[in-house]
Design the sequence.
């Protein structure tokens, strides 16, 4: 088992868990048997689900936890209420080196707080960030931060650029990803002071690990010309959710506009279109900057979406993301003092 | 002519001007003859266009201006380079009370600077804002600020709420619009200090002119449950452009997914869908907070889009927007001192 990727799963969080968790594992095992799953949650419920799919037993171990963090609990209260929740124990297994990566579909705020409480940050990183994959005209890009840090300085944004490029390289075959800063214009004089300072740092440092291409505006995020888009957690969260809302608005209205016959006639190409936009295919936000990686699945995704986030976990561990982050970092403090 | 709405048009700015400007006027005159147009720009070019549509002469007057502000000029340089640009003169006509409202499809930054240089702010407003219309499930809502102010405090955001509701009431039949603050969550503890302070001010003040319903997240902007969405200019600009980029991404991919026969079969319903999303229908961003109203048309819109922005100008003047703003304002300073 030592050569397996050991994934610690909070099996009680998210809609329709633990059923979707076990079904997600089943789907992932069809194409990849490299993972071993530590399942944290109510033993009886998990055994009942696994009973139906006995061969999963060979790839998993159940660790009973009594308590559950709910989605609507305040993150701080939830994180502190018990050390015997499925989420706490799953993250704690990283600290104890029992597992390589942790995965939860639960309360994002609580997961961030628990992860920061239990796991140290990578030396040089003061604020961890939440990164996610975003579809574009060519493939997928990485956007961060998506809400872990409401306010950020130039040191944080520079760290995000370094961490985001390490993540991109871990997930895709690309030795030199293109990085841009999200701003209200591409001109140098646009934006706030933090952005201008970050621009200078990234421009002046000779990057071995990524190419800084300057500012990018919101309408170009999905063009496919940039691999990693860096922003503070407030702006990133607004941008991600606005894109989600716009996509929902358009597809809902479109559905009402196509009659059944034309949908049938374009069936296969419409299926491709839906597949390209299917949010399950890029399910899995990654919490970057800690000594061990933590992945957050969307709470409302189904077993297919959860299987995708298992795949993200596998790639991150095999690509040795944490070491890549360490070797990518720029010492910004020295630069700012100089 | 005194009962006409007098619109001062910067006739040289934007793509394909002055041709599209004159064609836009022609379209607007078909449904509405209440407007009179002061056309600022190169006399020979304007006369050449109007020569083809002689009856427009009755509704317009050309004022020759020698210089033009280009789209790619730095706003500050452009605003200061000459007082004989079509943009400068059109805004100046407001100061001189020759016209009621000014309309330009040119350089947004330069228009903001010139407007602030020439026109005083409404008493009590320190920062004017750029507002625009955004389609939603039911109709349209107002979003502001969209980029005039990169950094805002609670006084600014409260002013934006008051001005945005006045604008909404001027454009639509609704005595009590619903206002929300754009944030990363709907819970009270979410967001930065400025948002929390603004939330308190809007919650504690008894509003006669609008209903404050709290925070809204990016994915709900288009749901149609809120009429006015308030945010700082940085966030608003990112949100607007991200929505635009997402809409372009989806429609581009969709086009490639539907074969010709199915497009024909759903022709009329697809036409309705396209019409609902047609950005020309909500063309016209409004610069709020000055003693006179200034409207910015999208530079790349066509004559139909420009005609829509003329319609916005007409509504604003007839609804007496500036007086509505004045009567809507909350004295926030007193509240903050108390």
Sequence:
């Amino acid at each position: 088992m030592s050569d397996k990727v050991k994934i610690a799963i909070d099996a009680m969080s998210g809609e329709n868990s633990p059923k979707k968790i076990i079904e997600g594992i089943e789907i992932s095992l069809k194409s990849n048997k490299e993972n071993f799953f530590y399942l944290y949650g109510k033993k009886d419920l998990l055994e009942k689900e696994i009973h139906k799919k006995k061969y999963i037993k060979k790839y998993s171990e159940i660790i009973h936890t009594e308590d559950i963090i709910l989605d609507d609990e305040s993150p701080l209260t939830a994180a502190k209420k018990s050390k015997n929740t499925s989420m706490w124990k799953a993250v704690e297994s990283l600290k104890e080196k029992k597992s390589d990566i942790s995965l939860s579909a639960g309360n994002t705020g609580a997961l961030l707080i628990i992860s920061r409480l239990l796991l140290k940050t990578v030396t040089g990183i003061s604020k961890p960030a939440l990164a996610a994959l975003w579809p574009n005209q060519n493939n997928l890009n990485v956007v961060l931060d998506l809400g872990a840090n409401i306010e950020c300085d130039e040191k944080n944004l520079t760290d995000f650029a370094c961490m985001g490029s390490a993540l991109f390289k871990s997930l895709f075959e690309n030795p030199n990803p293109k990085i841009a800063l999200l701003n209200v214009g591409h001109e140098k004089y646009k934006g706030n002071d933090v952005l201008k300072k970050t621009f200078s740092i990234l421009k002046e440092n000779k990057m071995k690990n990524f190419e800084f291409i300057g500012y990018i505006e919101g309408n170009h995020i999905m063009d496919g010309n940039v691999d990693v888009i860096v922003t503070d957690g407030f702006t990133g969260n607004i941008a991600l959710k606005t894109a989600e809302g716009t996509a929902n608005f358009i597809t809902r209205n479109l559905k009402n506009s196509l009659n059944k016959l034309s949908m049938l006639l374009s069936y296969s190409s419409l299926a491709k279109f839906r597949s390209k936009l299917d949010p399950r295919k890029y399910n899995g936000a990654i919490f970057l900057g800690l000594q061990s990686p933590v992945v957050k699945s969307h709470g409302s995704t189904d077993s297919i979406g959860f299987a995708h986030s298992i795949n993200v976990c596998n790639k991150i561990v095999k690509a040795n993301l944490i070491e890549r982050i360490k070797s990518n970092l720029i010492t910004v403090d020295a630069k700012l003092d100089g």
Remarks:
- Confidence is low (pLDDT under 50) at residues 334-338 of chain B.
- The CA atoms of residues 36 and 59 of chain B lie 5 Å apart.
- The first helix of chain B runs from residue 19 to 31.
- The radius of gyration of chain B is 20 Å.
